[in-house]
Design brief:
With about 400 residues, the protein is mainly α. Helices cover about 75% and strands about 0% of the residues. The protein is built from 17 helices and no strands. The termini are far apart.
Length: about 400
């Protein structure tokens, strides 16, 4: 229970929390606060739908456990006849492809952020007199990241996730200390932002909170999977904490810094004070410790297909080689591409909205079709709203990103 809770907290409490003040700036003080809570609720609900659909389909088909793509395939295959033709499309694993892209880009962004932090620390403490080539810093990062990427059992990653969660909370407390060090004022703060920036707020909030890719692997790895849902369950406790922290740091961060709010709230902290430097270092360590968890998703998707093409006696060695190569690819891209922001935003706008909101709603609808759509088909209308919200967020964010290029 507590291991799954630590992993889910770490999977949802990443560097995205640092961007929440900027997200609220794009949404407005009032809209940003309400919108953050709304996005948190809808992300939690879509995760509940996915896990519940997986439960239902496992029981219906007498299958012990299902992954993301398998859940989609069985839903189409066991649903009404008009959906059967889409089961073969599901088996092509488009959902898994999106997850691989997403969970490869996310640690790539983390590597880029860690490089920036390392460069800042070296530059600050050497007064600009020491220059270390970017490739050297990346190589040093590989030394720390690779051992975490080689951990194959989620159970052994629990201590890293737990320590990372503690570091994030400590950093959060120090950040709030700076925010509340002086009286706050709403003067000059926008309550509801312009319509053109609202999609940026929504996509940032969804990007920050949505961690659906690790949900089914976590639930399947629990000794008592029934404790994942329920009240209180792992999901509700974790997402309750996540939404509260994101709402607090986003609302008060923008209330403190207003138009001077940076893309990461750590950039608003004084660079010459030790507590502010501790915040950046603790966040860096927490992000570093999350690499094992982030690697788990693309490895769990890709490796089972690859190992079928390898002799059984080479499976262990092959998996280690695959993990090391993936690690080198991720860190290498971070070193080679100077500005990953637009690329990550462009792909994230599609992947996060589709994986986190659209697909779970479709799976839930098909699973319940002709069985349990509720009075006046209220579940159908609710899921249509979720898919519409997903499409609106993805399309509007794509338009916003493309227009800014």
């Amino acid at each position: 229970f507590f291991g799954a809770l630590a992993h889910l907290l770490k999977g949802s409490l990443g560097a995205g929390v640092l961007a929440m003040p900027m997200a609220v700036k794009n949404g407005g003080l009032a809209f940003g606060l309400v919108g953050t809570i709304f996005v948190g609720l809808i992300c939690t609900h879509t995760v509940q739908m996915l896990v519940q659909s997986s439960y239902t389909l496992c029981k219906r088909e007498n299958i012990p456990s299902l992954g993301f793509a398998e859940t989609a395939e069985i839903a189409f295959k066991s649903g009404p006849p008009m959906f059967h033709k889409f089961s073969s499309f599901s088996r092509l694993d488009p959902w898994d492809c999106e997850q691989c892209i997403r969970y490869t880009l996310k640690p790539t962004a983390y590597a880029s952020w860690l490089f920036s932090l390392d460069h800042w620390l070296i530059d600050y403490y050497s007064s600009g007199e020491i220059y270390i080539d970017k490739r050297v810093i990346i190589a040093i990062l590989l030394v720390f990241v690779t051992p975490l990427a080689l951990v194959r059992n989620l159970k052994f990653l629990v201590p890293f996730s737990a320590v990372a969660d503690v570091f994030i909370v400590v950093s959060f407390i120090i950040t709030l200390y700076y925010i509340f060090a002086e009286p706050l004022s709403t003067e000059g703060k926008v309550l509801i932002a312009e319509a053109s920036t609202i999609p940026i707020f929504l996509s940032t909030a969804i990007f920050a909170m949505e961690g659906i890719g690790i949900v089914l692997p976590l639930e399947n790895s629990m000794e008592k999977p029934e404790k994942f849902l329920g009240c209180p369950g792992v999901l509700n406790i974790a997402m309750g904490i996540v939404v509260a922290l994101y709402a607090i740091i986003g609302f008060f961060g923008y209330l403190k810094y207003g138009d001077k709010t940076e893309g990461s709230v750590t950039l608003n902290l004084p660079v010459d004070e030790i507590p502010a430097q501790i915040v950046k270092i603790l966040y860096a360590i927490s992000i570093l410790f999350s690499y094992g968890l982030q690697f788990f998703v693309p490895t769990a998707i890709v490796w089972p297909n690859l190992k079928e093409k390898i002799d059984k006696k080479y499976h262990n060695m092959g998996e280690h080689i695959y993990r090391i190569l993936l690690c080198c690819l991720i860190v290498g891209v971070a070193a080679a591409v100077p500005e990953l922001g637009p690329i990550i935003s462009l792909i994230g706008a599609v992947c996060f909205s589709t994986l986190g909101l659209f697909i779970p709603s479709v799976i839930d609808t098909i699973t319940r079709w002709d069985r349990d759509l509720g009075t006046l088909n209220w579940r159908l209308w609710k899921n249509l709203f979720c898919t519409g919200f997903s499409n609106f967020t993805a399309v509007s964010e794509l338009i916003s990103i493309i227009s800014s290029l």
